[in-house]
Design brief:
Elements (H helix, E strand, L loop, with lengths): L1 H22 L3 E6 L2 E6 H57 L2 H14 L4 H13 L3 H13 L4 H15 L2 H14 L4 H13 L3 H14 L4 H21 L3 H14 L4 H13 L3 H14 L3 H9 L6 H14 L4 H13 L3 H12 L5 H15 L2 H9 L9 E4 L5 E2 L15 E4 L21
Helix pairs in contact: 2-3, 2-4, 3-4, 4-5, 5-6, 6-7, 7-8, 8-9, 9-10, 10-11, 11-12, 12-13, 12-14, 13-14, 15-16, 16-17, 16-18, 17-18, 18-19
Length: 446
């Protein structure tokens, strides 16, 4: 639109100038080297404009001729780059689909067409991996690791190769090196953390997580939860070594990061009790119960009042019930204390309320104990014990990755080494067969 206005303006100016010159023709005489030319002012102006236009056209043509070779080579370079990136894209698609021959062909084509080798190395490495050529893949990853632009990808490739070989020591060395170079790379930090956990290097894992929190490599809530798990393991090790003060300090840090976690609160409460800080332990455990009632919290809470009478223990359990009257563990805590105090009616009432949320083996065994203790009724007790096989399973510490069941919570699964994978829930069970499955007949042709 601006160009249109400029063109219109030029036309108007030229028209006005032509009109003015036609009304004031004038005469011009030029003498030069014995030559004389007589003409009008209008003709002289026209000649000047014409000469200016011809000079401008000639200048542009001269510039175009000078730039022609460069444009030709630029066009050729752009065409090679376009074809190179097409080959690179086709090669990556072939590698992803497992077409080894096509991936290698496109890799060679891309390397011939593209001047920047860094963008083709990844395809070369992937093609070599597909072909089983681990030596070429390793050399390519090492080349990438030396290039600042592709160093992280190269380190990841070398780390993956070390994992495939089962060389955990080499994987640890590479993960540490990659972490030093790229402390904010989330997958590198997580891989290093997993290896440190696998080797039981809890001090190093704690430093890694502290650094990750500082660099915001993970969401804050997730990073704090993981660090609380690592600090809990450090506290347990310190306790086993007899360093009770250090164990308590580490447990406190873990609790401050994630006080709602059952293992953290139970461990911290137990250590506080061991240091004769029962008032603080009572508060920690009661707050944890409000968040998530659990047998480990109940056991640590009961240990605070070992010198109490059975009736006093019932009152303590009633206090827990008041915090979470809707939870099955609250009723089981009262029922357990009532059984010990021989308050049969109280125990039965709370076991019935717990059973309304599902009959589990634990409830069955407690009901069997109640029938045996209150009525000396062995037959009724046996009926409850027989129901254990068909009861809904009690929640346990089970790994969310492999399904393995652990006797107690640990930061590392003892079966698959998964970090922070244990959670409290009923174990995964195969569906029950309600009737004998029919066996299909073989085809007559076999």
């Amino acid at each position: 639109m601006t160009r249109v206005f400029v063109l219109v303006g030029v036309i108007v100016v030229v028209a006005l100038a032509a009109s003015w010159l036609s009304g004031n023709p004038g005469n011009v005489t030029i003498e030069w080297l014995g030559w004389r030319a007589d003409t009008s002012v209008a003709m002289l102006a026209f000649l000047i404009v014409l000469l200016t236009v011809l000079v401008a056209i000639g200048y542009r043509f001269w510039r175009a001729m000078l730039a022609a070779p460069g444009r030709f080579f630029d066009a050729r370079r752009m065409r090679r780059r376009r074809l190179g990136y097409q080959a690179l894209s086709s090669g990556m698609i072939a590698a992803a689909s497992g077409d080894t021959a096509e991936a290698q062909r496109q890799s060679r084509k891309a390397e011939d067409l593209l001047e920047d080798a860094s963008v083709t190395r990844l395809l070369r490495a992937e093609a070599a991996k597909l072909n089983g050529d681990t030596a070429t893949a390793r050399r390519t990853y090492e080349e990438m690791a030396e290039d600042p632009e592709t160093a992280l990808i190269g380190m990841r490739g070398l780390l993956e190769q070390a994992d495939d070989r089962g060389d955990r020591a080499e994987a640890m060395r590479l993960a540490e090196k990659a972490h030093r170079q790229h402390p904010k790379a989330r997958d590198v930090v997580r891989r290093l953390l997993d290896l440190q956990v696998e080797f039981g290097r809890w001090d190093a894992a704690d430093r890694t997580l502290a650094n990750a929190i500082r660099h915001k490599a993970f969401p804050p809530a997730e990073a704090k939860r993981w660090r609380s798990a690592v600090l809990l393991e450090r506290s347990r090790l310190a306790e086993s070594d007899g360093a009770s003060v250090e164990a308590l300090a580490l447990a406190k840090q873990a609790y401050q990061l994630d006080g709602s976690r059952v293992p953290v609160a139970a461990h911290y409460g137990r250590l506080l009790h061991a240091q004769a800080k029962d008032w603080r332990a009572k508060r920690v455990l009661e707050n944890a119960w409000k968040s998530q009632p659990h047998p480990d919290i109940a056991a640590a809470y009961e240990a605070l009042f070992e010198g109490d009478t059975d009736l006093e223990r019932v009152n303590r359990a009633q206090r827990l019930l008041g915090f979470r009257p809707d939870h099955v563990e609250s009723h089981l805590a009262v029922a357990r204390a009532a059984l010990a105090a021989q308050l049969w009616g109280e125990a039965r009432a709370h076991l019935d309320q717990a059973a309304e949320q599902g009959v589990t083996p634990r409830i069955c065994r407690m009901m069997a104990a109640l029938e045996e203790s209150e009525h000396d009724d062995g037959a009724a007790a046996r009926i409850w014990l027989e129901r254990v096989a068909d009861a809904d399973p009690d929640p346990v510490w089970a790994c969310d990755h492999c399904g393995a069941v652990a006797g107690e919570w640990t930061a590392r699964c003892g079966n698959c080494n998964a970090f922070d994978g244990l959670s409290w829930h009923p174990p995964v069970q195969a569906p029950r067969v309600t009737r004998e499955a029919s066996v299909p007949a073989l085809p007559a042709s076999i």
